[in-house]
């Protein structure tokens, strides 16, 4: 297949955080290795590469401390750029982690004034997001955590977090904004431990909010792997709950510092199954990438192109998987046992319970069934290696 077959189109709904492109290659041990691109230059470069959207923090666009007039001028320029270049601001979020005021949390700071300031900052960002026509609004609690457990009670912290989100849901409703919230879990970094570290914790927390219907989850591959968990399963849990509002795809070696590698650069099988999940289940949100170019890159464009290209190649592999006769025959065999019992547990009744209790199972026969997983997994390996 010619390589242009993997060129992105708007229909792919790819999006990048502009902070990814603005990343200067700084790390805890070394200074920046490339200049920071202005936001508009990032957006133009994405539009030229047929990217559907961009994601932004308030301060990626409007510097902290800008006057109202400066803010309005920036927004006018941005709106014109969006119209001229045909790219959408798909996701907005608030920077609640960079300024030292958030050194011990934003919504979970022990200081009510800081919690109020954080909430106010989000309200301004919500106004900006609504003005630009953004639909998804993310909360990544980068400073919502602790190093010193003696410092605060996690139940109180959860209550402060909940109060802020409930307040902000009411604000969105009262303004008539068509925005949905999406919570992004991460287990640690920059805090020693972050609150609400996994998809499961976010889902449980969302159920305690006043407007759970307004709130979903934004899982990120790297965050999941930092916790040593399986991204395919974590994304699936959010999807199964009807809460997968958007995604942050990238790459990451398990149980390490936040590497923010390109999608598929570290684990092809995992990238394949993530793509398969989103494709097979007709996920309709944006395919957001949240990663950084290597520190050795002079600009972000090879990085941008490779993430989209890998995703499209994986999509083709998914199609091949779904069409491969041998794989499908194996799956038919694996899923084909005892079809007459398939609906056994789908509806409870007293009769059904009695029937189940009276059934006899030949457990040795059930245990003896062949499950050809070596062959199945090898076929996936060969598919990804390009020899199938
Ligand atoms: C930050 C973090 C990301 C979040 C962003 C949203 S910013 O770079 O590492 O995972 O999605 O605030
Ligand atoms: Mn992210």
Structure, explained:
The protein is α/β, with parallel strands linked by helices and 388 residues long. It has 2 domains: 7-323, Divalent-metal-dependent TIM barrel enzymes (TIM Barrel, Alpha-Beta Barrel), CATH 3.20.20; 325-385. Helix content is 46%, strand content 10%. The protein has helices spanning 18-22, 39-48, 58-61, 68-85, 112-132, 154-175, 199-206, 221-226, 231-240, 268-280, 301-323, 325-335, 350-358, 363-367, 373-385, and strands at residues 14-17, 53-57, 88-93, 136-140, 145-146, 180-184, 193-194, 215-217, 247-249, 287-289. It has an 8-stranded parallel beta sheet with strand order 8-6-4-3-2-1-10-9. It has a two-stranded antiparallel ribbon with strand order 5-7. Helix 2 (39-48) packs parallel to helix 4 (68-85) and helix 5 runs parallel beside helix 6 (154-175). It is globular, with a radius of gyration of 23 Å. The model has no long low-confidence stretch (mean pLDDT 98). The structure holds 5-thio-alpha-D-glucopyranose and manganese (II) ion (MN). The site of 5-thio-alpha-D-glucopyranose has 9 residues, from strand 4.
């Amino acid at each position: 297949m010619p390589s242009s077959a993997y060129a992105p189109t708007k229909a792919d709904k790819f999006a990048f955080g502009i902070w990814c492109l603005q990343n200067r290659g700084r790390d805890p041990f070394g200074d920046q290795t490339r200049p920071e691109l202005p936001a508009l230059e990032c957006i133009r470069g994405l539009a030229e590469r047929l990217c559907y959207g961009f994601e932004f923090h308030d301060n990626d666009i409007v510097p902290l401390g800008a006057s109202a007039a400066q803010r309005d001028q920036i927004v006018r320029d941005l709106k014109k750029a969006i119209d001229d270049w045909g790219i959408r601001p798909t996701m907005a979020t608030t920077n609640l982690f960079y300024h030292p005021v958030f050194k011990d949390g934003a919504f979970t700071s022990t200081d009510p004034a800081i919690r109020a300031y954080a909430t106010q900052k989000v309200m301004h960002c919500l106004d900006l997001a609504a003005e630009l026509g953004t639909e998804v609004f993310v909360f990544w609690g980068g400073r919502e955590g602790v190093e010193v457990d003696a410092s605060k009670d996690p139940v109180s912290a959860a209550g402060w977090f909940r109060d802020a989100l409930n307040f902000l849901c009411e604000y969105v409703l009262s303004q008539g904004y068509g925005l949905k919230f999406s919570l992004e879990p991460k287990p640690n970094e920059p805090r020693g431990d972050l609150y609400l570290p996994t998809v499961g914790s976010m889902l449980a927390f969302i159920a305690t909010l006043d407007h759970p219907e307004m709130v979903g989850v934004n899982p990120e591959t790297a965050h999941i792997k930092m916790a040593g968990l399986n991204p395919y399963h974590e994304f699936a849990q959010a999807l199964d709950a009807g809460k997968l509002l958007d995604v942050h795809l990238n790459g990451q070696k398990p149980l390490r510092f936040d590497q923010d590698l390109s999608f598929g650069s570290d684990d092809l099988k995992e990238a394949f199954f993530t793509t398969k999940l989103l494709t097979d289940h007709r996920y309709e949100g944006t395919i957001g990438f949240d990663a950084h170019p290597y520190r050795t890159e002079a600009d972000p464009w090879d990085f941008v192109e490779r993430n989209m290209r890998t995703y499209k190649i994986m999509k083709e592999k998914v199609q091949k998987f779904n069409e491969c006769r041998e794989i499908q025959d194996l799956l038919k065999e694996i899923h084909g046992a005892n079809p007459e019992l398939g609906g056994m547990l789908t509806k409870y009744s007293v009769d059904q319970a009695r029937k189940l209790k009276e059934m006899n199972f030949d457990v040795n026969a059930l245990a003896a069934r062949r499950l050809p997983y070596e062959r199945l997994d090898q076929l996936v390996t060969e598919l990804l290696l390009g020899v199938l």
